[in-house]
Amino acid sequence: MPADSQAQAFDRFHIDQQLLRQRAFNLRWATVDEDVIPLTAADPDFPVAAEIREAIGAHVADGVLGYGPTEGFVGFRAAVAKRLTSIGVAAEPDRILATDGAASALWAACQAVLSHNDEALTFDPVDFLLPHCSERAGADVVRCPLEPGTGAIPEGALEQRISARTKAILVCNPHNPTGRVLRRDELLRIGELAIEHDLIIINDEVWSEIILGDVELISIASLSPEIAERTITISGFSKTYGMAGLRIGFIHAENESLYRKVLEASGAPRTTFGASVLSQVAAEAAILHCDRWLAGFLDHLRAMRAMAVPRLNALAGFSCAAPEGTYLLFPDIRETGSDEQELAERLHDEARVAVVPGLSEWFGPAAEGHLRLSFATSEEILDEALGRIEAVIARG
Amino acid sequence: MPADSQAQAFDRFHIDQQLLRQRAFNLRWATVDEDVIPLTAADPDFPVAAEIREAIGAHVADGVLGYGPTEGFVGFRAAVAKRLTSIGVAAEPDRILATDGAASALWAACQAVLSHNDEALTFDPVDFLLPHCSERAGADVVRCPLEPGTGAIPEGALEQRISARTKAILVCNPHNPTGRVLRRDELLRIGELAIEHDLIIINDEVWSEIILGDVELISIASLSPEIAERTITISGFSKTYGMAGLRIGFIHAENESLYRKVLEASGAPRTTFGASVLSQVAAEAAILHCDRWLAGFLDHLRAMRAMAVPRLNALAGFSCAAPEGTYLLFPDIRETGSDEQELAERLHDEARVAVVPGLSEWFGPAAEGHLRLSFATSEEILDEALGRIEAVIARG
User: Fold this and answer.
1) In chain A, how many domains are there?
2) Which residues of B touch A66 (CB under 8 A)?
3) Which pTM does this prediction carry?
4) Which among A279, A356, B67, B285 could bridge A26 via Cys, Cβ 3.0 to 4.6 Å?
């Protein structure tokens, strides 16, 4: 990288710690002691793109901020349809619903599809929101273990966990916390099983724009019309564009009756839930006007990944795969002799770095013996945090 | 009023129809034919105050828009506590939760308090959200009829509807759609019944800042500590400040265990639901910096009420009380010989004015034979709409 573009990149991905200490919550800067670096919740340390700030400013200028459309602004829905079409999903704007964040989209999808006595099939490990939303809808959660190290779906593992009660498969792609991008053959198997057993696929793609490896993001609804008609695709704008505080996500279902069920479950038709009009405008700008910003962000993340993975693997007892997607590291730390909670506490107390312990309650039993670290911060901060961790682990 | 301040008021409460036709949804300008004037959803036709626009602009300027605090910004919660304290409610900021609108606050309160087989006691008529959220929580709704014409709570009417299954009383004060501001003796009776029968009071005060008559808004939680400890107070910023599109409301419960239940039910601790940080900033500015704006808005609404009520009462078969609170008119139109649906359709088709028919599904059986009209628009628009209605009714 030439010196000037490096300087520019540094400037752009420099962060303002003082501001973050006032503004960044959910286990992050504003919630930890002043000398602690948080590599915790999956939320970047960077401000939103200028294009997003400008879009909000333009919309708010005339002050008309009354009720938006029940399902979202035409512009928002068209932008999301464009994004989905670009990854091969035949998305029409009128099958897209704006929601109060990706998590609320997941909640609505589960409420629409799952009931008491149903089984929801998902993975182990996986982000707690997938089982949590399934359980809130009354379903029992069945977890399919992923292959340790790679995060691949073992041959036959899903099949043997499908029962007459199974109603849905909940997929997270790219996968949180393993960072794996699911392969075409894995997705095809999921799709075929869904068809065979008449299941709905709830596909959480909140990480779909953070692809760091030389691997293609395949959206399961793009595989065939038969798979598409039983898939609900969910995403949001917090991970990629740094706007978790704006609470904006979406649901797509090509199948009209499935879409209607999700819409009804979402609360939007009765105004009990909905997405802020400013957040929709911000998300529309993110999709339509932030390609260059995103390319720069991904370059930065690749550089951070290249720095962090070897340094974690050099730590005694750590084993860490390079994530193909997401900006999450998920090292196996069992060989350190500490469990995830002890080690996270030690890093907090001695290194003054906060990480997420791989607790069963957050990611499932298979997460035990792992830590989760986010690297969506500046090179300076990440280097400092890794240096502090190295010093503590070196002391043994 | 001196001529210059009149001109200023006119200017301020003039509306931009073109803009509204792009932006104002939920039965309003953007959803009706171009020649139709909507006096429908309870959302004002005016832009938000400059102070609100400025607060949003200032917050967005640095671009840090990551996760806010689970329960809301300190500043938002402190501002809401100040507002509640000003109406006599002993509110601490740490018992206030920011929500995705007042409707979502009501939903969370019902989820926290009501279960299958419980009874929720509310009124007839009343806005559909109170029974709707009760039913979504699994409860059976029992309606206490209000006194026709005045909207008062008839002596003994609540008492005879309380059973062993009654778990909560849902109050709307000022009342939508009657426009009544509940009196101290009515609220004391509700409070005493709640204590006697161990009920929770869910108090929807979304209209509490729109007091037009010479009557005091009494917040039921201000009446006594015993009543306060079983009261959940809910409000939002859409009706008063014109920011329904920002989806921001709050829940207050003085009782810590009740607050914890509502917080858990809200989804905020798991990020499934929450309030946009920009919407919180806008609401904080509304409470702290918009007193003068609000005083001007209330003056305008009083003038519109003074114009509209006599003109509706002069229509053959119409009988309309002046609302003490809200900007809603709720004329009894039974003497016209038409039902609410027929008359609303006729006004739509012939007068090109959209109003809300008093359908049982929206307001309960007692709303039948009524129309609901909003007068939160400019004098010019309201005069035009009333003139068109007068012409149609005069034709008989």
Assistant:
1) 2
2) 20, 23-26, 28, 43-45, 238, 242-245
3) 0.96
4) B67
